[in-house]
């Protein structure tokens, strides 16, 4: 049975004046996934999130959340009633106290979790009477996350949730996120530059570059499929092209020819036999290698 | 809660405006005696010629009675000037402008942009309503302390006229706030629009016609008639500007 997609975009394009932010974005996030949205600065991560939340409209293509079109204003309100969002800057209302902001936000979500809000206030050491403008970046992030988690939303969208946080705060927030997602069975889409964060909590990954998704899928599946085949020759590595499927990147340096494959190593190893390498090594790759090689290839 | 947010965003402007109007209204009442002494020492011929001199001569004539003085000095004078400025100040700054903190937080809430603007407009109009009526009540309440009296009904008519006229400026400022990101350009442009309307009215229209004449209740003071045409146009213009502000916010990308 096909998995239910909570987020689905097809060929989404978006430009801001002369800058092409998205150029044919195809993103799929299944229900219950914790999906890390990876990409360099300006790759299109934030624009993707804005399109999903109806803050920006796609010039072409289609974006759906919960099966609803994001560019329909009425559907967008319905999407947002089931979605919580934490922005990169953790923008909140500076003039309100934490307590007032909680009451304000709760009024928009019929499934607001009162008991959880009380519990998280204590656990995150947020003072209810503190004014938002007086909160440190870390505390502001915790406050924004509290509001998102207590909204009773089925989908959490987080834009760089751990940016600018110290390692202890990062760990606390990631743990909180994972525990909540596990307990509630919600779907999480979070953008990040921090590959370690993504590897720690995500089960799905989408790598965005130049406004397109260049790699996406389950993290375990990507790890199983992707591998590096390293061929070492007695002399300089030959300049050859391989016919095997799934070659994502080829690097030639001195005696070494290094290939990144997204479809296992068997075909490449068999093909490499004809080149008489002095050694053939196949090893698993990290998410960082997949990211760097994929983005490097794209550029 | 959206109203509460709108009130939080605008409350200092509204409260400072209310204090300004209250003190000015009280000042108008208690300065009546000294103004009368001043007028008694002046001759109408000293004023000179021209439109401004004509207005001054008319004000001196009107100031011979408390009713005339309050109307010329306050309701058709300082009051509509202050209320116009306050309307421009109040209306400047959209709840969905980048200049305010928490824009993305607002946009991510399950609230349509039209509802954000409509709520802000309703809050602004309520504040403007209070600003338009409270000083009038103060004048009626304080008049006996200056051994004078002013009819409540008449004060309410002037307040209502001023409110309807000023609603155009608050709506214009709100609309411009959905076009520009900062609060200064909407404020400046609304001020320029008010100045242009005032100048056009003074030099181009017959006496007693136009927006500011309607705001001051000139017709009601002299012959008990209201400027229905001007007031209706003001109400329609305000509604159209609020609609345009909502439509402009709805179509924008953030």
General description of the model:
The complex is a heterodimer of chains A (299) and B (254). The longest helix of chain A has 18 residues, at 167-184. Chain A starts with a strand and ends with a helix. In chain A, helix 5 runs parallel beside helix 6. Chain A has helices at 45-52, 73-81, 98-106, 114-123, 137-150, 167-184, 195-201, 219-225, 266-272, 287-298; strands at 5-16, 19-25, 28-30, 34-38, 60-65, 68-69, 83-86, 155-159, 187-192, 204-209, 212-218, 227-232, 247-253, 256-261, 279-284. Chain A has 299 residues and is an alpha/beta fold. Chain A folds into 2 domains: 5-220, Rossmann fold, CATH 3.40.50.300; 226-297, Alpha-Beta Plaits, CATH 3.30.70. In chain A, helix 6 (167-184) links the parallel strand 8 (155-159) and strand 9. Chain A is elongated and about 70 Å long. In chain A, the strands form 3 sheets. Chain A has a 6-stranded mixed β-sheet with strand order 7-8-9-4-10-11, with helices on both faces. Chain B is mostly helical and 254 residues long. Chain B has one domain (2-251). In chain B, helix 1 (2-30) packs parallel to helix 6 (113-142) and helix 4 (66-91) runs parallel beside helix 7 (152-179). The longest helix of chain B is centred in the middle third of the chain and has 30 residues, at 113-142. Chain B is elongated and about 65 Å long. In chain B, 41% of the residues are buried. At the A-B interface, helix 2, strand 7 and helix 3 of A face helix 1 and helix 5 of B.
Structural class of chain A: alpha/beta
CATH class of the largest domain in chain A: Alpha Beta
Name the helix and strand elements of chain A from N-terminus to C-terminus, one letter apiece.
Answer: EEEEHEEHEHHHEHEHEEHEEEHEH
Largest sheet descriptor of chain A: 6 strands, mixed
Unreliable spans of chain A: none
Amino-to-carboxy terminus distance of chain B = 23 Å
Compute the average pLDDT of chain B: 91
User: What is the N-to-C order of secondary-structure elements of chain B (H for helix, E for strand)?
Assistant: HHHHHHHHHHH
Counting structural domains of chain B, the number is 1
User: Which structural class matches the secondary elements of chain B?
Assistant: mainly alpha
In terms of DSSP E residues, the strand content of chain B is under 5%
CATH overall fold name of the largest domain in chain A: Rossmann fold
């Amino acid at each position: 049975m096909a998995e239910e997609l909570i987020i689905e975009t097809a060929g989404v394009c978006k430009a801001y004046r002369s800058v092409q932010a998205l150029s044919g974005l195809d993103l799929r996030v299944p229900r219950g996934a914790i999906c890390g949205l990876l990409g360099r600065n300006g790759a299109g991560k934030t624009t993707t999130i804005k399109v999903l939340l109806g803050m920006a409209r796609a010039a072409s293509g289609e974006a759906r959340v919960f099966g609803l079109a994001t560019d329909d204003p009425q559907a967008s309100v319905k999407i947002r009633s089931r979605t919580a969002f934490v922005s990169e800057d953790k923008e909140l209302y500076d003039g309100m106290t934490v307590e007032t902001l909680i009451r304000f936000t709760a009024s928009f979500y019929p499934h607001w979790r009162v008991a959880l809000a009380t519990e998280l206030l204590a656990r995150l050491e947020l003072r209810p009477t503190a004014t938002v403008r007086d909160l440190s970046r870390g505390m502001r992030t915790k406050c924004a996350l509290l509001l998102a988690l207590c909204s009773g939303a089925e989908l959490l969208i987080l834009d760089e949730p751990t940016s600018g946080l110290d390692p202890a705060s990062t760990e606390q927030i990631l743990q909180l996120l994972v525990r909540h997602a596990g307990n509630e069975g919600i779907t999480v889409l979070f953008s990040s530059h921090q590959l370690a964060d993504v590897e720690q909590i995500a089960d799905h990954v989408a790598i965005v570059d130049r406004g397109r998704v260049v790699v996406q899928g389950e993290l375990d599946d990507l790890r199983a499929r992707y591998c590096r085949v390293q061929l070492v020759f007695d002399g300089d590595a030959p300049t050859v092209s391989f016919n095997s499927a799934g070659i994502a990147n080829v690097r030639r340096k001195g005696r070494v020819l290094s290939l990144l494959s997204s479809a296992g190593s068997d075909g490449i190893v068999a093909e490499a036999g004809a080149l008489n390498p002095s050694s053939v090594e196949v090893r698993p790759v990290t998410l960082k290698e997949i990211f760097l090689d994929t983005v490097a290839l794209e550029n | 809660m959206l109203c509460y947010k709108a009130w939080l965003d605008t409350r200092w402007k509204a409260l400072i405006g209310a204090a300004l109007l209250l003190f000015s209204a009280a000042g108008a009442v208690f300065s009546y005696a000294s103004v009368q002494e001043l007028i008694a020492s002046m001759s109408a011929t000293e004023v000179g010629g021209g439109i401004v001199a004509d207005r001054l001569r008319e004000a001196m004539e009107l100031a011979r009675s408390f009713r005339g003085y309050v109307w010329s000095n306050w309701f058709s004078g300082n009051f509509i000037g202050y209320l116009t400025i306050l309307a421009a100040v109040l209306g400047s700054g959209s709840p969905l402008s980048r200049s305010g903190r928490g824009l993305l937080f607002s946009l991510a809430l399950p609230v349509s942009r039209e509802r954000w603007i409509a709520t802000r407009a309703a809050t602004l109009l309520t504040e403007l309503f209070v600003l338009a009526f409270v000083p009038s009540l103060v004048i009626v309440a304080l008049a006996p302390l200056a051994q004078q009296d002013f009819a409540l009904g008449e004060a309410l008519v002037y307040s209502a006229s001023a409110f309807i006229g000023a609603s155009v400026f608050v709506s214009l400022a709100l609309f411009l706030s959905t076009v520009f990101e900062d609060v200064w350009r909407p404020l400046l442009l609304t001020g320029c629009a008010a100045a242009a309307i005032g100048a056009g009215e003074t030099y181009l229209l017959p006496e007693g016609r136009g927006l500011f004449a309607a705001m001051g209740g000139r017709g009601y003071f002299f012959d008990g008639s209201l400027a229905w045409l001007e007031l209706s146009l003001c109400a329609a213009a305000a509604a159209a500007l609020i609609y345009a502000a909502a439509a402009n916010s709805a179509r924008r990308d953030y």
